[in-house]
Amino acid sequence: MESIKDKVAIVGMGCSKFGERWDCSVWDLVVEAAYEAFEDAGVGPKDMQAAWSGTLGFAGGQSLSYPLKLDYIPITRVENLCGTGLETIRGATYALIAKAYDLVLCVGFEKTKDRGVGGLGSGEPMGGVHPVFGIQGTPPGRYALAATKYLSVYGAEKKHLAMISVKSHYNGARNPKAHLRREVTLEQVLGAPIIAWPLGLFDCCGVTDGAAAAILCRAEDAPKFRNDYITVKALGNASGPGCGKMMTNYDFVHWEETYRATQQVYQQAGIKDPRKEIDLVECHDCFSIAELMCYEAMGFCERGTAKNDIEAGTFALDGEVAFNAGGGLKSFGHPVGASGVREVYEIYKQIQGKAEEPSRQLKNVELGIAHNQGGHPGTFMCSMGIFGVPGR
Q1: What is the structure's pLDDT at 114?
Q2: Which of 330, 311, 371, 331 minimizes the C-alpha distance to 347?
Q3: Model confidence at 170: pLDDT above 90
Q4: Catalytic: 24?
Q5: DSSP structural state of residue 269
Q6: Which residue, 17, 63, 102, 340, has most beta carbons within 10 Å?
Q7: pLDDT of residue 123 exceeding 50
Q8: How far apart are CA 288 and CA 137, in angstroms?
């Protein structure tokens, strides 16, 4: 497969404030994110030649064309569960490489609060696969299976999961656009109500409203818009066969889809040692166990050893490789369709040196990974991208 490295650039990005946005419609959130991106790139809606709309809850291209007045241009609505956001950027990138368009827009968004999404799920059978498998198949319950098995197999403790949540809230408290802007202590996390053992309240991301937007063009055109643009280094996607629901030997302690997508992007970008070459990772930490298992699946530590790096602070803001500097889904929030684009927004701002608060601005950021994962243990899809400074 021909390399896509440095062929496409991101020249503008925007992100709404995430949270319980009762005062806003979904269109307000789309406008908030998209117009920040327009201003950032120095363009307007009339300059867009095509757009990608990423959402679970709102069908059709009208979800973008109406609020942004994108009159009669092609708009593709994509949906890939919680991995939807990065899929908008993946589709737009390949369209630009094919020279179908010159300047395009991606917007991921969701208005979960108004729709009454509770986060715990309905417990109803999923997808019509089998009348039993989906019963009580809530997201916390599914991830709790992974957490319970991981702690048992590798000797990690609940405190290690709690330390990840403490880190995420520390980062998110310093991010003006984050949903849950508060620090928490280890004692608070360990003492919080249990949602699905061993996952407590602070191990689970919140139900959030929000939107994020990106404007892309081919790299040779990027200097027309700005000098501090970033480029797409690699994009990957891996969707598993769903065997975890049916195979008794499914181990629940390894994200195979994340591992496969990671290998795709490392090969494309020429990454040999991610711990030394990658500066920032925005991973899909819908639950604390999800981030822990990403450390291992993405090759930042050996399987079963994540607890050592958690205790050492390896993935903190001042650690070796910052994970979820923006607060992650845990603290920043998780409006399903928006999260993947929001992850790229964090990488974009960190590389530019424009993190909203100096206390969380990383030094010398050149390469970042965005990891967007949908489904639950046993039936995942994973979309990933590497983004960075041109030529890196």
Answers
A1: 80
A2: 371
A3: yes
A4: no
A5: H
A6: 340
A7: no
A8: 18
- Our CA dihedral for 255, 260, 264, 267, rounded to 10 degrees, sits at 90
What is the C-alpha separation between 114 and 241, in angstroms, rounded?
33
* Better-predicted residue by pLDDT, 295 or 248: 295
Give φ, ψ of 232 to 5 degrees.
Answer: -80, 125
Number of H helices, E strands in the chain: 12, 12
Instruction: From the candidates 169, 334, 371, 376, give the one annotated as an active-site residue.
Output: 334
Tokens 């070459």 label which residue?
277
Rounded to whole angstroms, the Cα distance separating 177 from 197 reads: 30
**Neighbouring residues of 242: CB distance < 8 A, sequence distance ≥ 6:** 129, 378, 379
pLDDT at 225 over 90: yes
Coil, strand or helix at 122: coil
Residue 205 is a catalytic residue = no
| pLDDT given at position 71 | 87
Q: What is the pTM for the complete model shown?
A: 0.95
Task: Kindly report the length of the chain.
Answer: 392
ω into 198 cis (within 30 of 0) = yes
Kindly list the structural domains of the chain, giving each domain's residue range(s) and its CATH number in brackets, ordered by start.
Answer: 8-116+211-224 (3.40.47.10), 139-205+230-388 (3.40.47.10)
Distance CA 91, CA 96 (A): 9
* Marked catalytic residue, from 82, 205, 217, 382: 82
